[in-house]
Amino acid sequence: MRITFGAAVLLCMSVFTAVPTQGQQKGQYMPGQQGLNAGVLPDPGFTYANMTINYSSDTLKNASGNTVPLVGSYDIWAVANVFYYVPKFKVLGAKLAVMAAPTFANGSLTLGALNLPNLALNAGGVGLADTWVQPATLGWNLKRVDVYVGYAFMAPTGRYTPGASDNVGSGYWGNNMITGSTFYLTKNKGTTANLFTDWEFHGSKTTGRGTNATPGQAFTTEWGLGQVLPLKKGFSRLLQLGLIGYDQWQVSDNGGLASPNIPASALPHYSVHAIGLQTNFILPAKALNFFFKFEDEYRAFARPEGRTFVFGGSYTLRIPKLKPQTP
């Protein structure tokens, strides 16, 4: 029997958030949200997903990839409520999907110098973060690959005051060109190779020093190799296991001024690389999926180096409903 779970339920939802720390000029997309089934779009109908993301780090890397002698921690919790709509009709032979993801976040940053114990930085914020809106996505279901291309923007709905230590938003608009691909390596579609890409472009923000700065463009890839294992005859319950990872690079200089005397272009480019595991528990007939992901960062430049946990679930109200299969 052919496994058709890829077309039956959304397994990995695109959820996006930005919780920047004071003074950073980094991008808005938080890697670690993709992985397995990166090219799969929901069935026609309405899909809701809840995704919780935690990123934590107690290590800061400099531009050479060496550890900065600081003590402290950087921790973010983000909870995204994702709403997807896929109509029955097709455009250019492809599914049309629209999506919005309002996100609530709680972030904290505590830093101190090892040789200056009286000098410390404490910052953090909680509330509505920036909102990812994906107004146009086209996805094609081919014989051995599911693939989509799309455009999304990040709206600066999170609280942001220049120079404040409790910001939850980034303070600027972002534009993203995204792709997702799932390659089926076996005829029954049980073994997959997956790739997601995001090229993000940023607007300008006002800094706490009376200047304007534009974060440089960023490019992110997320990949995964997965295998489906049936837990019950008839494939009514499926377990999917896989190896996943992400890589993110700043690919252009920052613009504007980081301070009145320092051009933002003088700030070093950041990058990060991670590898980890993902598991999905899938009920295809009920259009339910539950997922858990863990990725550990093994290399970073000019940014924190830490670990990412992601867990949650999704449900699709199919329109029309699937007809029950006859034995």
Mean pLDDT: 86
Q: What is the string of helix and strand elements?
A: HEEEEEEEEEEEEEEEEEEE
Total discrete domains: 1
Structural class assignment? mainly beta
SS summary, helix count? 1
Low-confidence stretches: 1-24, 113-120
**Quaternary structure:** single chain
Task: Kindly estimate the percentage of residues that lie in beta strands according to DSSP.
Answer: over 45%
What does this entry show, briefly?
The protein is mainly β.
Outline the structure in words.
- The chain is mainly β.
- It has one domain (about 5-15, about 20-320): Beta Barrel (Lipocalin), CATH 2.40.128.130.
- It contains one helix and 19 strands.
- The strands form two sheets. Strands 1-2-4-7-8-9-10-13-14-17-18-19 form a twelve-stranded antiparallel barrel. It has a four-stranded antiparallel sheet with strand order 11-12-15-16, with no helix packed on it.
- Strand 1 (about 45-60) and strand 2 (about 70-85) form a beta hairpin.
- It is globular and about 65 Å long.
